């Protein structure tokens, strides 16, 4: 009877936990992936080149922005911002993780970061005209808060799901996230269509809606997941922050004692950078390189969102039969094919562009959801949030190697095609490192129970 009650309690918390994927996916999809990158790029181009009249739309803007004494291509600005945010994340998020591992109220900590991020996301409604500086600052702050909230969120997975449940729970969370993000994106698609004569205003309203959505639905996991005392934190003297710095240093030294975990983390850093940059660059690529209207690019992202639901759930079921590791590895080869296909897609070819969106949807959710659950098996108990902070440094919207490569190649070549193709190197490096990972050995080294299927 007690075991049944424990199972019912776990399932109840898991259902509440899923809703943060639903909540933050509004920002990740509507703002970060679809609307804000091309919108901020247009604002930056207007600031660099001046107002562009209808007669001048066919002309190429060659003027750069001047940032801290450097000349920065307006078309590369967004990718440099994401690069800077992730460099900052490398310093900030591990401290967030160490604090979370010592916190007795992770749900409230999750809510604090999420509501701060949603505030910055909502304030994007005020980005207009040539005010690219405000847009850059808000994107930086919202991205950092998103990363911090996901550190706490991912670490809660270990507390609410047994080893054999994690692939299923993680996949369901991602699937619900795709559904939530897709529904708001669909509503914004309708708004952009109805307000076709006031596209800029429609985009700003959509950005505001994403911030509100993120804030409102975060209430469910904050109230539905119970607080738990920390488990075996590293003994360090001093207050919470000082002790957290000490725990971080201890964990970084200890990471060498988990070579399989370290190898997977390095593999994930590379291949997830590739995934995140493809998603982040897709809207800019579709509009600026392939010549599609904003509404068409948004429609393609809707395809990704709703196909992604089936992809995440399907990959989760396959992982239950053959193991998450093999599914992740297979998915990376599909990502290689997606990059090459995107590079070859001719301008204005809508059927091929939508087919590419379907392929991305199939593989996107599965590789990310299973990476999260697989990594949770490779980390020692009591250190989940801190280890997930290292993981989050290269998670959604916080990649830096890929965005730096993409931005630099675009600046050098003045084309997004070679910039996209250059991302292949990240997937190749990720695959090369992932094949060196021994899942069973890694789980045993971390002191964790082996699931039935590894």
TrEMBL record:
Sample GO molecular function, one term: transmembrane transporter activity
Chief place of localization: membrane
All residue ranges annotated as the Major facilitator superfamily (MFS) profile domain in the record: 260-454
A Pfam family that the UniProt record links to this protein: ATG22
Topology within the bilayer: Multi-pass membrane protein
Domain of life where this protein originates: Bacteria
PANTHER family reported for this sequence: AUTOPHAGY-RELATED PROTEIN 22 (PTHR23519:SF1)
Protein name: MFS transporter
Source species of the chain: Nocardioides agri
């Amino acid at each position: 009877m007690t075991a049944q009650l424990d199972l019912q309690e776990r399932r109840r918390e898991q259902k509440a936990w899923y809703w943060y994927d639903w909540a933050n996916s509004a920002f990740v999809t509507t703002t970060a992936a679809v609307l804000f990158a091309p919108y901020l790029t247009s604002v930056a181009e207007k600031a660099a080149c001046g107002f562009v009249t209808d007669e001048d739309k066919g002309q190429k803007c060659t003027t750069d922005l001047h940032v801290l004494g450097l000349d920065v291509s307006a078309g590369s600005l967004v990718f440099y911002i994401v690069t800077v945010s992730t460099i900052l994340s490398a310093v900030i998020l591990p401290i967030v993780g160490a604090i979370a591992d010592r916190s007795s109220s992770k749900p409230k900590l999750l809510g604090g970061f999420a509501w701060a991020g949603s505030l910055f996301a909502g304030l994007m409604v005020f980005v207009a005209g040539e005010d690219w500086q405000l847009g850059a600052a808000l994107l930086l702050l919202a991205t950092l808060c998103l990363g911090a909230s996901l550190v706490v969120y991912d670490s809660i997975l270990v507390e609410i799901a047994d080893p054999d449940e994690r692939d299923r729970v993680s996949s369901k969370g991602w699937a619900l996230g795709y559904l939530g993000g897709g529904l708001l994106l669909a509503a914004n698609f309708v708004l952009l269509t109805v307000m076709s004569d006031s596209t800029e205003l429609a985009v700003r309203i959509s950005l505001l809606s994403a911030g509100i959505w993120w804030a409102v639905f975060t209430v469910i996991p904050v109230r539905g997941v119970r607080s738990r005392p920390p488990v075996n934190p590293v003994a360090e003297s001093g207050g919470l922050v000082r002790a957290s710095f000490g725990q971080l240093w201890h964990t970084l030294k200890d990471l060498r004692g988990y070579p399989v975990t370290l190898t997977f983390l390095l593999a994930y850093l590379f291949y997830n950078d590739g995934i995140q940059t493809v998603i982040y660059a897709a809207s800019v690529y579709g509009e600026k390189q392939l010549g599609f209207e904003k509404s068409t690019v948004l429609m393609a992202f809707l395809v990704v969102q709703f196909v992604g639901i089936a992809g995440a759930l399907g990959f989760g079921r396959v992982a239950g039969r053959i193991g998450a590791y093999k599914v992740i590895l297979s998915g990376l080869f599909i990502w290689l094919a997606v990059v090459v296909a995107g590079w070859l897609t001719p301008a204005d070819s809508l059927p091929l562009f939508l087919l590419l969106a379907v392929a991305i949807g199939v593989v996107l959710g599965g590789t990310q959801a299973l990476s999260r659950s697989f990594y949770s098996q490779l980390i020692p108990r009591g250190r989940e949030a801190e280890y997930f902070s290292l993981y989050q440094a290269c998670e959604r919207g916080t990649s830096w190697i890929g965005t730096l490569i993409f931005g630099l190649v675009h600046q050098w070549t003045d084309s997004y095609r070679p910039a996209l193709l250059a991302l292949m190197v990240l997937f190749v490096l990720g695959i090369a490192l992932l094949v060196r990972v021994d899942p069973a050995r890694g789980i045993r080294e971390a002191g964790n129970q082996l699931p039935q299927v590894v």
